[in-house]
Design goal:
TIM Barrel; 16% strand; 8 helices; 10-stranded mixed sheet; binds zinc ion; alpha/beta; 258 residues
């Protein structure tokens, strides 16, 4: 296999971890699932074939109950907002949870959707919120336990293992999509660069060493290059010593077992 500089850099960084006797933990989050469209079926088949655990961030309002009920027990379902509708005020960045919506109203929407999604996804459900556009206020974070959540997943290195008391935090760090330039695959250099940067920051203590590095996909936006990259990532990572793909259930343990 031809190894480009970016793949070599990933292998080198993983080797540094291995030399330190530390496992490299990765996890995989895919956003915007609602029903079993062809790209999602392809993604799930890939997860099954590679045995890499997948966490689907599902939009509760739009989610198809038959699709959720038919998922393999190894798939984890996280809650991706309520309806994924942009409610941002003029000049505000995209968000489902704007400051203009009363906090109690937001919490009650979230709690109702959590109960519905939890019932449909059953044992696959992990009560973790993935806010659309990775955005929500600090006030809302602090109140998430009241809406029944135990975890939060956004984008970028976390500042603490708990986003608020009782809310475990595990984010994604490697976005495969170039949102501002064509919404296709960001490219090997960019994606692997993000992964190596997060791993190096963890190793050197500039980021929380205990936060698994999260790979973020959006099945609906994948071009063929993105699919090929993912396939290669899973193949390469299997052969790198000490690399382990962790299920969301492990990152967000049940309070009873934590
Ligand atoms: Zn989304």
């Amino acid at each position: 296999m031809v190894t480009s500089g970016a793949w070599q850099a990933l292998a080198d960084e993983c080797a540094r971890w291995h030399d330190l006797g530390r496992p490299v933990e990765f996890w995989w989050r895919d956003d915007d699932a609602v029903q079993l469209v062809a790209p999602l079926a392809r993604l799930l088949a890939m997860a099954e074939a590679t045995q890499v655990p997948i966490a689907l961030a599902v939009i509760p309002e739009a989610a198809d109950a038959a699709f959720l009920g038919g998922l393999s027990a190894r798939v984890c379902v996280l809650q991706h907002g309520v309806d994924h509708r942009n409610r941002a005020a003029a000049g505000e960045k995209k968000t489902e949870f704007p400051g203009t919506e009363p906090l109690e109203a937001t919490l009650s929407r979230l709690a109702r959707a959590r109960i519905r999604l939890g019932a449909a996804a059953a044992e696959r459900f992990v009560d973790v919120l993935v806010p659309p556009w990775n955005r929500l206020s600090g006030q809302l974070v602090a109140r998430l336990p009241a809406a029944g959540f135990r975890g939060l997943s956004r984008y970028g290195a976390r500042h603490a293992a708990e986003a608020a008391p009782g809310i475990r935090q595990s984010n994604a760090h490697v976005d495969l999509i170039a949102w501002h330039t064509g919404r296709g695959f960001a490219g090997e250099e960019a994606a692997l660069g993000l992964a190596v940067a997060h791993l190096a920051q963890r190793r050197l203590g500039a980021a929380d060493p205990g936060e698994a590095t999260g790979w973020l996909t959006h099945h609906a936006c994948h071009d063929e290059a993105a699919w090929q990259f993912l396939a290669r990532l899973f193949e390469v990572s299997r052969r790198l010593p000490g690399v382990r793909w962790v299920a969301a259930r492990e990152l967000f343990p049940d309070r009873a077992t934590a």
